[in-house]
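User: Run a structure prediction on this.
Assistant: Running it now.
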Amino acid sequence: MNTHPYLRAFLGGIFVPTLVLPLMLAGFITFRLVLAIPVPIERFIIFPMAIVPSLFGLWNVLYLATHERTHIALGAHGAILPFLGAPTGAFVASCLGMLQIDAHGVTWFQLVQIPYAFLAVAFCAAVAGYYLIWKYIVGFLNGVLGIG
């Protein structure tokens, strides 16, 4: 089946964030309403809910379009995405006043101080998580959709 491979790649890519982000939203709403945490979740979660699924889909389309020339494994291709998404997200968040960067770490919403050591560990975990998601879940979906 060779009809519309890029559309199928886009749909395979958006699958994971389309399932995970509403669960994250439910968790944030629970924390906000039940635990009365004063973090403005609506500003924190709306941008990722709008951008991340499309980014995953376009990243999968890029993989399909370039795989014949680059021969990069799907997991490694997915693991590159945090190297682009994290700096971009930090830049946008700092421009919107949600993130402040100082000498000891970052501060979210003038409320939560996160040291750089924790950010480094979290970034490494994100790269590993993206590798596994792309290798196993997106790879499986690409195979089911006939593009992997």
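The two ends are 12 Å apart (CA to CA).
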